[in-house]
Specification:
Layout: E1 8-12, E2 15-20, E3 23-28, E4 34-36, E5 39-44, E6 58-61, E7 67-70, E8 84-88, E9 99-103, E10 106-112, E11 118-125, E12 128-135, E13 139-146, H1 149-159, H2 167-173, E14 184-189, H3 193-197, H4 211-222, E15 228-232, H5 241-248, E16 251-257, E17 260-261, H6 273-277, H7 279-284, E18 302-307, E19 313-318, H8 321-338, E20 344-348, H9 366-382, E21 386-390, E22 402-404, H10 427-435, H11 446-451, E23 456-458, H12 472-482, E24 487-491, H13 492-516, E25 521-526, E26 533-538, E27 542-547, E28 553-555, E29 558-560, E30 564-569, E31 572-573
Parallel strand pairs: 14-15, 14-24, 15-16, 16-20, 20-21, 21-22, 22-23
Antiparallel strand pairs: 1-2, 2-3, 4-5, 5-13, 6-7, 6-9, 8-11, 9-10, 10-13, 11-12, 17-19, 18-19, 25-26, 26-27, 27-30, 28-29, 30-31
Length: about 575
């Protein structure tokens, strides 16, 4: 059954309206809605009816774990242009198949029945954003009004008949994944990373972290960090994986990329160290140009750009999803045969979108692409590996255990965040993070109210737990409130200065996530007008109350310290 609501539908000469209590949403169009149990549906061929937005409306978008913009406010661009947002409901910009409008405490759900063939845009035009939902083929679009975000998300699950594979089920398939429950992720970079990867000449320096990686692991272990996954980027550091596992019980995953195809002609214009030491780059050269994805105009799709000796950026190309799946099945077993102590595979980019390929040799439709990608991830699991990807979305949810980036909404990230993974923020970057990423009125646990018990969601490696030391308390609060583990990414030289911060934040976050990671988020509430006091509930058992303000706040019979959280189990404080 759907939520029993008293939503009123009315038709008029200009269109129709939905209302709940005193809140009304007016639609101007020539379509009509039909009641379907406790929601309404409209048959749509291209553009779904959208109500006229008003000043003060909060637009809720499915960007990564969820984000909010106010309809009448201006925002400054970071990684992407926040004044021109959108994407298919099968991408990091559309991780779940809905958009919503919050008005006067009521939530209007707009939900196309087929997320693979629909999407949205939110573009600032004049004083207000223009919100649009498009359908690539004829389908039903569902509408409902709710008194809470939880009610809306519960209704979405019923509309879409959500029955996702849980983390507990995934752990049964790959038991090593249990070490992510109450654990954290670490990417550690050699101090010469930038000089090698972005050099203006070829050099022979080794970018591997080598013994420094094991020294840091030893220090973390002796500081009480017992559960961790280490990401390995350069192939030479694969030699440390066995020691990480045998000595500390730490699991390791190797970075891999089946999206970015390196044009061999780049050997004359970009640092060759990228090819010599990035195993995935070397393996991808063979797929240029025959394996590259082709757009409808017959052009090769572009991908992640590399900085050349001339200081300019040179775009790689995108591997066709079908070819990528073939390469995974060919290459990964051989790598694991050589390094059997790898327990996971981190597949960058591949989980971010579903797309078509117009190549005559390997054409792919949207539906075929989805099936191919799900099959590719499933094949990695069947190799006994923990499957991780970048961002991700609900259509590939059953095949992945964790994602990096979902806990860092992409429109709130700093500019060029993907190249900032070995750095502490500078002052300009901190200013951008202050505006949006740490603003509790703009973050919202949309994903978690639907799928929290199905996926581990880390921050992005350009927006990690320690990158903004002065704001680490806010990072801790969001992580605990949403039940998300920490991710750290730093250069070897930074570890000494930030070790205490890393250890303390890890312990504060995992104290909560050890208990909440595998549970559904069963409630979410904003407890005051400025969004600085918020509450989540996991499994109807554990409760987290986060105080984002600089003053004490009260919750029931408890006092929540400034920039701190309260953790309860069945109403009693967990200590």
């Amino acid at each position: 059954m759907f939520w029993v609501i008293k939503m009123i539908y009315s038709e008029n000469k200009n269109g129709f309206s939905f209302a709940l209590d005193e809140t009304v949403f007016e639609f101007t169009n020539n379509l009509t809605a039909q009641k379907n149990r406790e929601v309404y549906e409209v048959n749509v061929k291209e553009r779904a009816p959208i109500p006229k937005l008003e000043a003060g409306d909060r637009i809720i978008l499915p960007v990564d774990e969820g984000m909010v913009v106010y309809a009448d406010k201006d925002y400054v661009a970071g990684e992407l242009d926040i004044k021109n947002m959108g994407g298919d409901f099968s991408s990091r910009e559309g991780t779940v198949g809905l958009v919503a409008i919050e008005r006067k405490g009521k939530f209007l759900l707009i939900c196309p029945e087929n997320g693979l063939h629909s999407g949205y845009s939110a573009v600032k035009k004049g004083e207000l954003y223009d919100l649009s939902v498009y359908c690539k083929k004829e389908m039903k679009v569902f509408y409902g009004i709710y008194r809470s975000l939880k009610e809306m998300c519960d209704s979405y699950k019923k509309i879409k008949n959500v029955s996702a594979r849980t983390l507990n089920e995934k752990i049964k398939a790959v038991p090593e994944a249990e070490k992510l429950i109450g654990g954290g992720k670490f990417w550690i970079w050699n101090d010469n990373y930038d000089e090698i990867m972005y050099s203006d000449h070829n050099c022979e320096e080794n970018p591997n972290t080598g013994e420094a990686l094991l020294d840091i692991a030893d220090s973390l272990y002796n500081s009480g960090i017992k559960k961790a996954m280490f990401g390995i980027f350069f192939n030479g550091d694969s030699n440390s994986v066995e020691a990480l596992y045998k000595k500390y019980g730490y699991i390791a995953t190797q970075y891999d990329n089946y999206n970015d195809v390196f044009n061999p002609a780049f050997l004359d214009i970009v640092p060759n160290n990228r090819v010599k030491n990035c195993d995935y780059t070397f393996r991808r050269m063979k797929d240029y140009p025959d394996g590259v994805q082709v757009d409808q105009n017959g052009s090769l799709w572009k991908a992640w750009a590399l900085r050349g000796f001339d200081g300019k950026m040179h775009s790689q190309n995108t591997l066709c999803p079908v070819v990528a799946a073939q390469r995974m099945k060919e290459e990964i077993p051989e790598i694991i045969k050589e390094y059997p102590y790898y327990k996971g595979r981190y597949i960058d980019v591949y989980g971010g979108t579903i797309s078509v390929c117009h190549s005559k040799e390997h054409p792919v439709t949207l539906d075929e692409c989805l099936a191919v990608k799900k099959g590719a991830y499933k094949a990695i699991e069947e190799m006994g590996l923990i499957v991780g990807t970048e961002d991700g979305h609900e259509l590939i949810l059953d095949e992945i255990v964790y994602t990096e980036g979902m806990h860092s909404p992409v429109y709130f990230r700093i500019n060029d965040a993907g190249r900032n993974h070995a750095h502490i923020y500078n002052e300009q970057q901190k200013e951008h993070i202050d505006r949006y990423m740490t603003d509790p009125s703009l973050r919202i646990p949309l994903w978690h109210l639907i799928y929290h018990d199905c996926l581990i969601t880390f921050p992005y490696w350009g927006d990690t737990t320690e990158m903004y030391p002065e704001r680490v308390k806010d990072k801790i609060l969001f992580a605990c409130l949403y039940g998300c583990p920490p991710l750290y990414s730093f250069s070897v030289r930074h570890f000494k200065d930030y070790k205490d911060l890393i250890v303390e934040s890890y312990k504060k976050i995992t104290f909560v996530t050890q208990k909440t990671a595998t549970l559904p988020m069963t409630d979410y509430m904003v407890l005051n007008d400025d969004y600085t006091l918020q509450k989540t509930v996991f499994g109807d058992k554990y409760c987290v109350v986060a105080n984002f303000s600089d003053k004490e706040m009260s919750y029931e019979n408890f006092i929540v310290a400034p920039k701190d959280y309260l953790f309860l189990c069945d109403g009693a404080e967990v200590k």
